[in-house]
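note to self: dont lose this again. the chain is below, predicted strucutre after it. 125 aa total, dont forget to put it in the shared folder this time
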Amino acid sequence: MVKNTGRPAYLQIADDLRAQIRGGSLAPGMPLPSTTKLAEQYGASLSVVKLAVGVLRTEGLVIGQQGKGVFVRDADELPPPVKAGDVAEEVAELRATVQDLSKRLAKVEEQLATSTTRRPGHSSR
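---
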């Protein structure tokens, strides 16, 4: 059941399903319960459950098969668990990269603006 903790319901559901996968209750190759069953189990809407399953897909824990369902990936295909420290380091690295790209983009835009301004008496051709 989803709790009123301030954490979004879809993340609570994803956390619970992830723990079941890592703990072995949802074994490799096993299908996840249907979206409808998960919605009933967690007392959530279908869209919230779909978001939770989407998180697990993005993490590589489950894989969808058109018309068949969503299945836990084989054990040798499961990514290793992410540690909190790893996530913090990744976020810091991403922020630094975005800042660098922002500076570089500003320089390119400045150069572009300077090179495309018309000079009096000169044609742009």
